[in-house]
């Protein structure tokens, strides 16, 4: 038995109560149901008590005070504690017959149970009770029993208060006190009076000599260390209260006023008087004065600290050596007198020094930066001081630390602040320098750590992650068509030396590194039925998934492969109702957009989504928008229908899901009717425009799938006869009548869908679809020539011209908007040109069927190719994904090129130049266009050469001119047949070939071929792609090009090189005449020729006549390619040279990077080239000329040291003249003056021995003469290296003399004479060569007449 809780054993002798089991109802066989309140057994104890004692008083008796006006303070074992006499025990409750019976029954059962227990069982139970409830449990139970029996009033049962045993106590209150309205004085406490035996009363009576106020204060304020263990009685009951008072004076109390002040606030604590009269007064003696005396009312309730003061007012004197009040030493002496001043536990009482504002950014609760000037002055009521710092605001480290708080409210608040910081960072309101470049990644990790939490913490975590992933670059929200991952430099700490700074290595960005496999189950937990989060949070999660799937293909695959993830999210999404959310929609179209993005990432993902999803989404096509609906509901239905159709179109790009076209045909007539009515009424909202675009898009895709049913998967799901039977073209022609001219995207969709039909009719229709084309022409002729269609075309031309004129360029704020402005009209113009091309009925037609402004369009596109628009989005510094806006532009260029080729509106040379310019700008997915250009170029190359008066060698002509190199070029366009990106406009062939729709990231295009992140695509082609056959021949052991060659290919190495060089020569001739800026540069031609001679590297050296570079045709073509770039070919050689910046990458190093990659430096390639020259060249002049460009002063001195020092054979055998050197001019080899001592000694030796000729002698003579005649401070600094001394350095004067004396000792009078009278052919800006008189004076000054005479004799 514990307290009043007892266990009852059912008595076997007691018969069951009557009515315990009611009799069954005859009609049902079951007892009648009766509420338990109507039965005696179910009545509550209170109801039974009222029934037994109906005369029980109903009113609560008044409780009177039992404390006398005086109170005695009695010291106890703790001198600072005050004991209070307990009240007399409360009277025992009046027992009733039922209560007595129950108590007697329980008591008998307990006694019987105890009597049946053995001694060991009793001791075990006793020990168990003592362990659970402590040693005072017996006393407590005894007193409870005495109270029940009414014996507490007996004096014999009174418990001595001084005893250490637990005892209950109550605080007795004095009678109600009265006080005036303007003050409230508290006097020293009086004594208390209680009922009890005389011995107990005597101890509580006041002494005959009452204590003075000073004694009382000394007794209350006796110091006691708070750092030591408490000596309070552990056995004391929790009901016995001990009051402890600290020595608090009015000066210790300060009220922080509210900012701004609340009109309803009442300041209960006031500042101390200025006269110091309240010093030393304890808190119990404080006098309160109200700010509003008229509002004061008399209290009926008593309070101990309100007792009237009876003793005179006393003050405690201070010792003269006491420290200043409030100082750390004062606090230690008063509260911790037994602790040493150096105790570490007392460091907290030391007053902190005023903290100065730091450079660390501090934020308020709105995520805004707090200016440093305000960090130390802001008030504390703003909630910005909850850190260890005294400065206002939170640093990013503080917030990241608090984001892991175990307090849910605090954690949610901090996450909200982090989200606002991210929003300001993404919008540019806060610079990344203020918080660090890795702030986004750090905050993202903090948000990811809180994903999956319940309540507001989980919602705020989603907000943080959304801001870091989606809101960071809002331009890419729902941006489809390209991956967005970039490469970032990541810090890697050094493993060897801790003091060494961390290095950086390239790696994926923060979004690509998100462990999505771990995050997806947490995201799935948000989608519950019924919803546990608001619609905004769920919408942010869908946007987050959409962004991650677009960002990196691996994320899309992870979403698809996570078991039950998409099915769970879709099930919950479909189950949501509008009533589940407050004024928010239940079905967010972002989920269907997510399905489309997942399908674009790979064919495998599209096949996984194709199983059940198309049929599930058909419900949204059946729910046609109604005019009776609200605008929000109608736009929601339009959006759901549009995204459903877009998803079907995405599947159709792979030739998948065509069967759903037959099922959806049931709803298409109603959809066409709705589109037609809305177009005719002019009620075109953004959601409706999107619906119309996707309708035409899916019609185009399904029509293409029906052109060749063998290309779909599975085949024959949709055939051409079904397209004709459905009358789809009639719907298109009918809708075209009501489309406004300003709806350019709708016009583009209509024309693309119509062009797909006419293209299919050409293949599947009778007589190449002449009847179908005539039908389309009749339906669209008036619209395109004079109606809204022509207005749309004219507006698109004007918009494109305006966008090109307003193009800002790379790095400008409007770069991306300008690209979008170019892409939009390009889409419409491309669709119009495509439709016109498909309507040409005869191969001999020379006129545009639709009468498009072809001449204006051709000039516009030619001007466009001359700008940087096609190149800027592909630069390494361009924003990720920006080049996706070039897809409509390249499609327009190709459509116009095909139309002009079909109609013959351009000459062969002009068309070829246009084709070559377009070829270099084609993007991944345009492989079919690139192959078409090369095939047409190869077919007409002989006629083109004849028109250019270009002679083709018989050996090349016999091999079909370009037939030997065409397989190399085709492989360069498609390096991997297993990786194929769907074109911007699908074709029947692309349906089965496409492995993905989305474009690879820009970073993947620029990765080296050896990188695993490199996209296996060939487009865009490199500038020197015409030399690709040479690269494959050099790497024939590892190149995969030969695996894709046809079995009939049998060209030799020499025949391949001949065809390659001829193709380069023809393209160079075309471009140099019309667009020289588009032609290959000198360095690209040089490196291509170097690859020709390097074909002999590593080959067994037998008969030298087998060397490819010695072939007469090859040699003639190499000479023809190099001749326009030689010094002699320049019409006006420059007379002065300006030294370029040393930061510029040497041209040949930049040109060779694509071929060599990042692992092989060009210096290594040049070393092998020099060794090969000495081994097999036999002083070949072309081979020798290729060695000279790296000797330019633009290149590091290592190249010159390698040539002049390690390869003396090359120095003696290279006899190339200055005019034959492939360079801009001789000035780049002469300036700045060489300052390397080793190289200068080589130059002096070469001049002294006379082993150099031609260009090399000119270079050596220049640097030797300039180092001798120019004063040390005259020559511009050489770009040799930081450690290489120049003539301006220490010892320059001595070196000048030694060089001149070395020449005199060489006995080469010709060399000495040339040095004495040397004048540079090309001067340098800021450098003046001394005249003859100055030179003679300098020699006489240090060498005297003897050296001067030796010079004159030489």
From TrEMBL:
Residue numbers spanned by region Disordered: 1-98, 144-238, 310-330
Any one biological process term the GO annotation gives: transcription by RNA polymerase II
Occurrences of domain RPAP1 C-terminal (ranges): 361-425
Keywords assigned by UniProt, alphabetized: Nucleus, Transcription
Subcellular location: Nucleus
Record keyword Transcription present: yes
Domain RPAP1/MINIYO-like TPR repeats, residue spans: 1162-1265
The protein's name: RNA polymerase II-associated protein 1 C-terminal domain-containing protein
Organism (species): Calocera cornea HHB12733
